[in-house]
Amino acid sequence: MGLDRMTFEDRPDPGAPGAGEIRVAVHGSSLNFHDLGVATGRMPTADGRIPLADGAGTVEAVGDGVTEFAAGDSVVSCFFPDWQDGTATIGDFSRTPGDGIDGFARDYVVLPATAFTHAPKGYDAVEAATITTAGLTAWRALVVDGKLKAGDTVLLLGTGGVSIWALQIAKAMGATVAITSSSDEKLERAKRLGADFTINYREQQAWGRAVVDWTQGRGVDHVVEVGGPGTLAQSIEAVQVGGHISLIGVLTGASGEVPTAALMAKQARLQGLIVGSRREQQEFVRALDATGIRPVVDRRFPLEALADAFRYEMGAGHFGKIGIEW
Amino acid sequence: MGLDRMTFEDRPDPGAPGAGEIRVAVHGSSLNFHDLGVATGRMPTADGRIPLADGAGTVEAVGDGVTEFAAGDSVVSCFFPDWQDGTATIGDFSRTPGDGIDGFARDYVVLPATAFTHAPKGYDAVEAATITTAGLTAWRALVVDGKLKAGDTVLLLGTGGVSIWALQIAKAMGATVAITSSSDEKLERAKRLGADFTINYREQQAWGRAVVDWTQGRGVDHVVEVGGPGTLAQSIEAVQVGGHISLIGVLTGASGEVPTAALMAKQARLQGLIVGSRREQQEFVRALDATGIRPVVDRRFPLEALADAFRYEMGAGHFGKIGIEW
Amino acid sequence: MGLDRMTFEDRPDPGAPGAGEIRVAVHGSSLNFHDLGVATGRMPTADGRIPLADGAGTVEAVGDGVTEFAAGDSVVSCFFPDWQDGTATIGDFSRTPGDGIDGFARDYVVLPATAFTHAPKGYDAVEAATITTAGLTAWRALVVDGKLKAGDTVLLLGTGGVSIWALQIAKAMGATVAITSSSDEKLERAKRLGADFTINYREQQAWGRAVVDWTQGRGVDHVVEVGGPGTLAQSIEAVQVGGHISLIGVLTGASGEVPTAALMAKQARLQGLIVGSRREQQEFVRALDATGIRPVVDRRFPLEALADAFRYEMGAGHFGKIGIEW
Amino acid sequence: MGLDRMTFEDRPDPGAPGAGEIRVAVHGSSLNFHDLGVATGRMPTADGRIPLADGAGTVEAVGDGVTEFAAGDSVVSCFFPDWQDGTATIGDFSRTPGDGIDGFARDYVVLPATAFTHAPKGYDAVEAATITTAGLTAWRALVVDGKLKAGDTVLLLGTGGVSIWALQIAKAMGATVAITSSSDEKLERAKRLGADFTINYREQQAWGRAVVDWTQGRGVDHVVEVGGPGTLAQSIEAVQVGGHISLIGVLTGASGEVPTAALMAKQARLQGLIVGSRREQQEFVRALDATGIRPVVDRRFPLEALADAFRYEMGAGHFGKIGIEW
């Protein structure tokens, strides 16, 4: 799928919802590295696949038996519409919107009610859409898997969507946060969001060591590893004995040299994860309602300019999320 | 031990610290229901036992091999000086200061370094002393046992030391809090500390039901049960299916009628606990340093007026902690 | 519902399965205290409710989209057909077969495929039916909630269906088991199943103390509490500091005096539970396949003699499960 | 330290135990890859370091305040004598016998009582010594970290000490086990110990795929990864979505190519670990007492022939543990 060949015309109207389904007027989405992979063909999908995993909008009608939602409700989609609760059981994208099934780059969808949750209170559609992938990934890494508590220390790599969501969640729960970037200006923005320690990794290439020093030699409790093999060695250096590294990212490649003996000596946990369950998203929404966190949307593009939005994403100049609205 | 017979003269100076020990000039303590039990003789101890489980002050000297502390450090005592880490293994007060061993109502102590942690930054001795029993109990109930996360709902009973500590911890981690009292004025104070829902249980005797309604029928995630059998039935009513009740209190008695079938039907967990380990206290101190929470000290008494302080505690007119300083 | 008024005639054939459903020829069930409550009217249900929560049989046909089962498969029902995985979310019997919905005392059912799991290999229908309620309750108490490991000590009360299942599970995982009964003959049978320590509670009324002595003063790791308030005080005495009591039973009443201060001092956990999720049942079936455990079926009755079977259950003379087959 | 330069003469007698210490007549040890690293100088230690991390023998005398042991007791050493309980806090060998401090290749030691646990009942000194490193590593991987339950599937790599201990533990708890080796004869021995599925990885180089097929496509719950980077890719392939890989080994190197994206997609956990705490060893001993497992000692060497024993270990022809006795 070439970026310039993505069109959004002539989508047939999906009609009325059947039993257990809801009809949603979609008004917003946001971009993720995964969407970019689909859009550029790096992650192959069926021909004509409608892109975009994130989707938020307004319920227009509900089918028989749907009690959780009513017409007029603001809703946001689930990355794994079949993963309702419990242990991770899905290891591929065969049922993820915008990949294995059609995504949200369209005006209307009819899907099972269980493929959505309520949107956080007061969020517009773009803001809501940022929780489907990036927000829930950060929540799961720190809170579900990491059992984050006040006073914990967290290391975040870069200022993309997952990292900035993780920064906001960590600060709302009383944690202390270090964050890296190649841009002093982005590090300043991170500070204004509460970051306690910032590292320009171009200037301080031994950032793993710098983080250890910042913790007086103890190492951090959690690392949200969005980089992959290119950053993992320093993340292992930065984590404390018995600590927790959430392995999310493939930004630096899908495979590479890893100092496994160092991970072993640290008695650290490297937890692979992809987003989370619908129940986790419901709990995340409750957390957002309670704390009043609002996501950082760097810039918004109309749906028609989706190719431009992806080009902007590739430029790596953004901070937080890139929104698509219509 | 009669309240008026507690004297604080003629304590021999404990001298210099031996290997692994520290000498601490004690300057503050705070009162707990447990101390009151010892002071009134409800909980029998050895004759002449020096009271007070909580103690905070300044390190005057450290013995051989002590690297964690240095002279001049502010420190606070541990409720279970032998419970360093890991699973609960202590079910009595045989080694608790002010009960099985001498407490902190004196000018100087020499004890193993492992019987203390650093005090939270910026705390005076009375403030620091409040974490030994009440603070760590609240932290363990919500954070260690309860795995509290942002968006969780918490029910607190009354406005004593544990409940107000729990209120502050819960709010600092993004939770939503309901709290009960018989005093509208205390409920107002709780609101100013962040309480989201307040219930005057004299006016609203079915407070368990009121809490369920407040959560739109869902029930709360956590109850910090300081009452005991007299309140447990409504606490079980208030908790959600699969929820968590921390059983801390004996304010309404040591034994009583409990609707066990209701607990079973709720699939809820009733977790007995007494304070926590030294490692948990270290993590709690880190949380206090990170969040800047300061404890609520209702009133301070000089050590000489300890009997008056206990009488004030018995009056139940206080809010938060009662401090003792010298 | 009077025991003698239960008839099993004229049930209409449920026809062919719809999408996502399976048609099952039911051939076996087993009795639980819960079924007895329904049958005797102690637990009120709708008029004409078909009894029996446990059901096992053979798949006759599968509806569209069903891939997990095929005609000819042996299957067993789930106590909570809607609870698929994850955290407990159900606190009533409104959707439990034989209570809120029709049960298995009939020849054919058509139900969602997700209301069943595969039966353990080599089990007949009565044996398979014993896992729905009693077996899964024991598995959840010890393994899911209790994280049972080899070397743990377990206390079981009586020799009913849950306790005998718990005995077999505990022994298959390397635990050490104490069990009580009023019958020396039943205790002998328990020994033959691997029980390590047996107590006739008529002779040794201080059985809680006896269990503590048996563990050299340490107390047991787990108690499977099927008694309720009448036995809970001694169960609390028997459990170790930091131990785990599964609260399952209401045999001695739905409410009663509980020494809450003792539970607190033990820092023990009292975990209410009702059976478990479908995923837990799938894992339990896998455990049964791996270990080759076969349930203890005390006696089998034909479906027509269901009233007699319930009378036999009330007599409390049985050991393990009472089967119903047709 | 050259293998032939290890001598065991002229060790001064350590004398009587001080307060909190015990004097132990050491009679057995066993070899680990870690000891080999120390002996060959691959892991540098202080000059004249007495080797061997594992040690078992008989208590000859106890110092003041020691109540856990008495003269005549059989005891076994702890790999981390300072790690008593709780979260992993040690990430190096600075306090491990035979590395950072003197080990057990001598007739008598005087050490804190907390550096030992009771030996399993009926074990001789060599058998007991095998639990210090290899046994506790396997126990922690599967039971402490892995929460192993009956019916779980386990993949073991090779037939060294950790893997064979893991095989015995897994079978005693009702799990199902696959194991690899390059020797059909060793695979036969593993089968006799209960292995359910054996793979000769010379013949079946795609052993990861073979394990997935053996589980009908599901993947295993646990992998005990003793290989390191050379085997990790296939271990990731073999594990199920949401599964657990214990990262123990460096047999194939300390660093290497790892398919991190595959680990992420599997949502699997890679848990680094080094042995465990003293409390975990106590629980492991209780499990051995309850289950009657006896370790597999491939061959025994006298202490004087320690160099020969290490050469035998390097030959990789052994199965289970190599014992040293004196």
TrEMBL record, chains A, B, C, D:
Pfam families: ADH_N (PF08240), ADH_zinc_N (PF00107). Coiled coil: none annotated. One of its GO terms (molecular function) is oxidoreductase activity. Gene3D superfamilies: Medium-chain alcohol dehydrogenases, catalytic domain (3.90.180.10), NAD(P)-binding Rossmann-like Domain (3.40.50.720). Residues 2-324 form the Enoyl reductase (ER) domain. SUPFAM superfamilies: GroES-like (SSF50129), NAD(P)-binding Rossmann-fold domains (SSF51735). This is NAD(P)-dependent alcohol dehydrogenase.
